[in-house]
Design goal:
By secondary structure, the protein is an alpha/beta fold. It has four domains: 66 residues, Beta Barrel (M1 Pyruvate Kinase, Domain 3), CATH 2.40.33.10; 53 residues, no CATH class; 233 residues, Phosphoenolpyruvate-binding domains (TIM Barrel); 126 residues, Pyruvate kinase, C-terminal domain (Pyruvate Kinase, Chain: A, domain 1, 3-Layer(aba) Sandwich). It contains 16 helices and 22 strands. An eight-stranded parallel beta barrel has the order 4-5-6-13-14-15-16-17, surrounded by eight helices. Strands 7-8-1-11-10-9-12 form a seven-stranded mixed sheet. Strands 20-19-18-21-22 form a five-stranded mixed sheet, sandwiched between helices. A hairpin with a 4-residue loop joins strand 9 and strand 10. The structure holds adenosine-5'-triphosphate and pyruvic acid.
Length: 547
Amino acid sequence: MAQVVATRSIQGSMLSPNGRSLSTRSDKFLKPASFAVKVLGNKAKRSGRVSLKSRRVVDTSVRSSSCVETQVVPVSPENMPNKFSDTSVGMWSKPTVRRKTKIVCTVGPSTNTREMIWKLAEAAMNVARMNMSHGDHASHKKVIDLVKEYNAQSKDNAIAIMLDTKRGVSTPTCASVNYDDFVNDVEAGDMLLVDGGMMSFMVKSKTKDSVKCEVVDGGELKSRRHLNAEEKVQRYLQPLDWEDIKFGVENKVDFYAVSIVKDAQVVQELKNYLKGCGVDIHVIVKFESADSIPNLHSIITASDGAMVARDDLGAKLPIEEVPILQGKIINLCRSMGKAVIVATNMLESMIVHPTPTRAEVSDIAIAVREGADAVMLSGETAHGKFPLKAAGVMHTVALRTEATITTSSEMPANLGQAFKNHLSEMFAYHATMMSNTLGISTVVFTKTGFMAILLSHYRPSGTIYAFTNEKKIQQRLALYQGVCPIYMEFSGDAEETFANALATLLSRRFVVVGKGEEIVIVQSGSQPIWRSQSTHNIQVRKMQPRV
Ligand SMILES: Nc1ncnc2c1ncn2[C@@H]1O[C@H](COP(=O)(O)OP(=O)(O)OP(=O)(O)O)[C@@H](O)[C@H]1O
Ligand SMILES: CC(=O)C(=O)O
């Protein structure tokens, strides 16, 4: 194991909380008048008093002409109106009570109990991520088992399980680095960045098994910090990664997030291995090094999705490149029909504070607007003080942002290129057009998840209710934007299955449309169900309660 030895004492300590007064925070969020405005009770109306704390910003447009005091509340499923009356958001932008952008929560010491996993799952979590850089296989197995237990008990919700195969750094008095070639890969003059630049060291000299550094920007070096050595460290799948991968196979996880993928060959190697094991685990590549950027297209083609790993990316490239690459990777993934996750620092301040910074809120909104399938919480839920609040904020911000997105501005120009001339592609496109024009949701039946994923990439304005007879597919679909995966046995008769699906939507309160309202039904995909009775088709049906 290599070591990093600091040659002068570490300066200061990690930034302490920035002194923001928590008590001056209001727990009410302001929103535009047209959006879920609640009128205050009679008492406030009679008294004509407005209780506003100092420095509150009041959007006067929320007040009616009769001077009724209004209280503007955060977006939540309970208070969303069924129909969206604000035409300013675009005629195709229908309300969705169900959040479309999915939330990946890293599970760690703050959340690895049954109680917290249940709460996170009920609050906002769609994907539980385990970072293999931290903890051991036993502790990760416990979390996996808890998520599986939740999935088995929950009738209407499924949480996907993602293993992040990365390895990190540990520290006694001088830092140990669990990357064997570290000493060979760095040279005098290189900058080593801790946690993406929170601290930095300049390499001065090295011996056979240690690297001597001078502290440039100091701080408190805690255990399991992250070390980047500019572009010197180019790591392929290491033996330790394979241990993690085998662990994932044994525990039947849904996704791997694979670190430091330089080219498509690494992904292919992993995919071949998984095929050999006879398991169906999807591979998400983490874009976190400059080397991988020239190969974006081929790497994404080989994989099932991508993660914009902004921490490492920002450490290895000029930091101002990160938002540009984020947009580029999102667009590319969407146009290629692949999942895309935006990760790291999204609500970083909530690791220690109960409320986010405005910049963090904007960051989530930008990722949602750019069309990410999912946004990710790392330290916020792994070891933060307010994991449930952080998940709640992410949910609220995503939901609010989604309500302002017009579908017309959303579709990447080259969407469809990956499936050119594919009949399913055509069906996904036209089903989306119908769903958007009518402002209604879509129902799709899928054995493999393919058609639901395809539809998701067109981003129809309504929810995609994906019925599947495979629990594994239900879990996988939890990652995809706009997809609400529902497990249901399929009958041999298509009509009976349609009726069961529509009844399920109503009776289990999945739908926000009322009885008698319409829904688009899509029957297509790589393995169409009920091929003998019908081929591909799109129907518009009324939601009718079963007699
Ligand atoms: N299973 C775990 N056990 C202990 N601590 C954990 C665990 N998972 C996460 N953490 C803590 O939460 C922090 C944030 O998690 P995160 O997944 O972002 O890891 P990271 O090493 O900081 O970065 P990266 O995401 O690039 O791997 C970690 O640095 C670690 O301190
Ligand atoms: C998630 C991750 O690994 C990163 O941001 O670097």
